[in-house]
Design goal:
alpha/beta, Threonyl-tRNA Synthetase, Chain A, domain 2, binds adenosine-5'-triphosphate, FtsK/SpoIIIE/SftA, P-loop_NTPase, FtsK/SpoIIIE domain-containing protein, nucleotide-binding, ATP-binding
Length: 743
Amino acid sequence: MGRAKKTAEAAAGGVGSELASAAGNLGRTIGGYVLAKSLPYTPPWIAAATLPPAAGAAVNAMWGSEAMSAGLASAGIALGGAALSAVTWKTSGAATAHRKFRRVQATTTVAASMGWLTCAVSAGPFGRPMLDLWLMGGALLAASWNVRQLMSAGQGADPEETNGGTLAKLTSAIGWEKVAVRDAKGTGKGTVKAQIEVAPSSTIGAVQSTAATVAAALHVPPSGVIVTPDPENAARGMVSIRVADLLKDGVAFLMPNAFGMLPTEEIPLGMYADGELWAINPFAAAILQHVLVMGVTGAGKSELLRTLLAHLATRQKMTVFLIDLAKGRQTVGHMADGIDWFIQDAKEAKRLLKSLPAAIKARGDVLASEGLDQWTPESSLNAMLVWIEEAADVADFNELVETARKVRSVGIWLGISLQRATWDNLSTDIRANLQGTICMGVNEAKDAGFALPDSVTDAGAVPAWGSDRPGYGFATGMGIPNERWTTEVRSSLTTRDVLAALVAAAAPYRDPLDTTTADALGQAYAQRAHHGTNRTTPGIEQHAAAATEALRQAIAAAPAGAVAIPAGLTLPAPAAPPAAPSAPATAAALPATPRTAPAAPSAHDTEDELMSAAEQAAEMEIQDTRDEILGAIPGDPEPDAAYADLQLDDDVAEADDDSDMEFEQQEGMSAEEARHTLYAELDGWVQRGRLEFEPADLIPATVAAGRKRPWMQGQLKKLVEDGLVQRDGHGSYTILHSPLQPA
Ligand SMILES: Nc1ncnc2c1ncn2[C@@H]1O[C@H](COP(=O)(O)OP(=O)(O)OP(=O)(O)O)[C@@H](O)[C@H]1O
């Protein structure tokens, strides 16, 4: 029992001492806190306590003993005090409420102190009422300085208004009377940024509409003033004024960090106006956004394309197709090795576009079987870029809308370049499917609106400088953060030799097109007129080694500032022995040897590589001659004949015995033989490079097989179902694979 009591006492004592110690700690903590917080506010009190008696005693001792000197000293101090007060008033600004308070308070302090000192000359500091005035006045003034300190501290969270200086003079001229400009800061990179807030009767939109006026008033380029709204607060925004052009001397081409990187790594294209790297990353974005590049002739579209292609050509798991009917060779001829299918002929361009649906389907099936919703580097398929220069001359936009919508999820990135994307040549639907944009110089501000989102043009980001500033523009989407959309960019520019050598040197790192896509594209791809190089191209190692040396020389010969080399990049050693296939190179450093030994070429590539340039040229010539002859035959030699109104796909009645329509028919051909005759006709066409046909073109083979049109139509239907032939509509067909050599 006694023990229990002791324990309870001990426990009570323990709790009591803990409480006491906690209270002590709390007291010390609060005391320390109060002391720390109040310390910055003590100097006015120390000054009020010490300065008046010291100064009062000094002036009284010096001049107070005689009436004459006291009078003169008082007059002098009074005059000086008045002058000092005036100067204080004059030099303190009053642009804001805070500044007004500071002006009144500083002037009052000076005037009161000098007035008291004037009286202290003869009365001394400690007589009455000098002592009372000192104690009351000093305390009041010290407190007022504390208030001032508190107000300044509060200003830290709410930036100080800077509607002074140049902007103050401009406000009425540019209609910014209702705009408060705060916290203006130079970025140190040629740009001044400031927060803005509009009065209740105005909007940020109204400020945006004055951007051009502000630019003119400040003598900066029209696109140099950008006003972006704050998404969180409709009354606030940010104005950015570019006062110096860091990009005017050109932007160096940034070499890749390494050869053999994945498509999902950033693609550096140039520089932002504030000196930051301008890069896109379409394949890593949540949604693959196709890109529309727009700009007048001479705006810099081709140069931009070269930079993009050069980077993609150094990557693994990446395939590029490019259509340029106007000046393909001139634009990218020196880099054509990096383009797997380079098309400069309208008919071949159509073939590519027609064969895409089959590729989309095949890729979709493979991705589904791999458990992927969209393309990622884990897929067995390559990422792809299909770039169409001056798309208005190449494609039927209805077809493109469908394609653009479907290719996105199967890892095919679509790039379309246009000089002027008006609604005439670019439908709203296709525009909606091109969410990435790079808009370079256009002639009129409204043209920029065809490419750039409204939020960007409204902010004043309008590249209406035509071809005067090549390479400059604005870019949106494709992984670019939204807040960068209104910052001017400039693409890089380097020599042709550097780009050509880079593409050639990187060939051992390029993968051939995956067989799924190659097979689905069928004969259109197998018979392509141009073949890029990749790691399966015979002799590519030696070629690349020589190109690496050429690259070193081209870099050395390039003008200063034309090439920038990342710290981690090491060019492959010339004639390095091929290494075994390795994991994807994602590190910054470039391995000293190429990534892979040449793998066995795919069926398509073997076939294609064996086809000599002369054979290809001959084939194209045969095709052209055939087209020429067929083109010369009138569409309907017998316009008045009884069968004239029949369509090719219509069933026709059996010819009457007395009809003059007679064909020499092979009797007794078995079903197998008849089919082979038809297939042989199609195969012959494929061998000669002809892939497009109409049902009527099969009549001779049908007749030779001893069959009639319904049989031919049935065969055609089966060929379509088997994926060997594609129906393009309007009674025309494309052969995807020869029925005698299916994929
Ligand atoms: N980023 C850049 N920096 C400096 N000069 C550039 C840049 N881009 C392009 N240029 C120069 O501007 C000129 C026109 O460029 P480019 O041929 O790329 O224009 P374009 O838009 O493709 O014209 P077009 O539509 O006629 O083909 C060239 O002399 C080129 O060197």
